[in-house]
Write a structure and sequence with these properties.
This protein folds into three domains: 34 residues, no CATH class; 81 residues, Immunoglobulins (Immunoglobulin-like, Sandwich), CATH 2.60.40; 140 residues, no CATH class. The chain is 0% helix and 41% strand. It contains no helices and 23 strands. It is elongated.
Length: 284
């Protein structure tokens, strides 16, 4: 049936012996209307989490009077599209996304009659491990718990002796301040970034500030002065011998009940070599 065309239907009775056909007294006309699906969802983006991706988009499709809900798809590396699920909100959490793999998504909108819009633009995200509330001690006072190495598995202990050749950095405190001291094959971005959180996740408020993508240049193997509520980016060599990007956010610089200097911080680590994506879209 063609859109915009009118079709007539009637019923006839046929005599099985003679083959004579008697038409019905009237016909029924059916007009095939032009279908207008809801608008295509706009500004699709992905927030990379630990073991998950959160897909978001703008609410422009709701402007359609007959809007019903959204459908979310994943596009594989081979170009196939896989239906993930439906939602009536401008957000979808993919809990099947694994750390270290990149996933691409697009979204469509549906009306109350089941008509589906075209697909939105693709957005990609690469989940990576992160951890909150980590702490290490000053190397001069507690060397055994002063070193840190980004780990691919959160079950592995990232705290090392500050003298270990495996550390990515260690903490030092002296009369001049607090210092992030890089380990072998580690470089630190020359400036820190004032942030309110390691990542602005699903329920973050509008004033949340994070760092989504690691800078591509301006790294050095110099000690970095530390400040609270600041995010620092490190370029390190991972267990695979390749360059990876990690990020820490300093929550607190202080002392324990025994007067030993320590740092509380959050961290995230990108498992894909060379991928600068920290919490936002891959390839940014």
């Amino acid at each position: 049936m063609a859109v915009g065309q009118t079709y007539e239907y009637y019923v006839s009775a046929v005599d099985p012996d003679t083959g004579l056909e008697t038409l019905s007294d009237f016909t029924v006309e059916v007009f095939v209307p032009q279908v207008t699906p809801p608008p295509v969802p706009d500004q699709v983006a992905v927030i990379a989490l630990d073991g998950a991706n959160y897909v978001t988009w703008e609410a422009n499709a709701r402007n359609a009077a007959d809007f019903s809900h959204y459908r979310v798809y994943q596009r594989t590396s081979g170009g196939s599209d896989f239906f993930l699920g439906e939602t009536d909100s401008e957000g979808f959490l993919d809990l099947l996304a694994a750390n270290g793999s990149t996933y691409s998504y697009f979204v469509t909108s549906m009306d109350v009659d089941g008509h589906e819009s075209g697909g939105s633009g693709l957005a990609s995200g690469t989940p990576r491990p992160d951890y909150h509330g980590e702490f290490i001690y000053d190397f001069l006072e507690g060397a055994a718990d002063s070193g840190f190495r980004f780990q691919e598995d959160e079950n592995a202990n990232p705290i090392l002796d500050g003298d270990s050749p495996s550390i990515h950095f260690r903490l030092e405190e002296d009369g001049a301040g607090w210092w992030l001291v890089p380990g072998p094959q580690t470089a630190i971005h020359l400036t820190g970034f004032a942030t309110t959180a390691l990542k602005c996740g699903v329920a973050a408020d509008a004033s949340c500030v994070d760092l989504t993508v690691a800078p591509s240049s301006s790294y050095a193997s110099n000690d970095m002065a530390l400040e609270p509520q600041t995010t620092y980016v490190l370029r390190v060599v991972g267990d695979d011998g390749q360059v990876h990007y990690g990020v820490i956010r300093v929550d607190l610089l202080g002392y324990d009940q025994s007067g030993n200097a320590l740092m509380f911080f959050d961290w995230a680590y990108q498992l894909q070599p060379g991928n600068r994506n920290l919490v936002g879209p891959a390839g940014s």
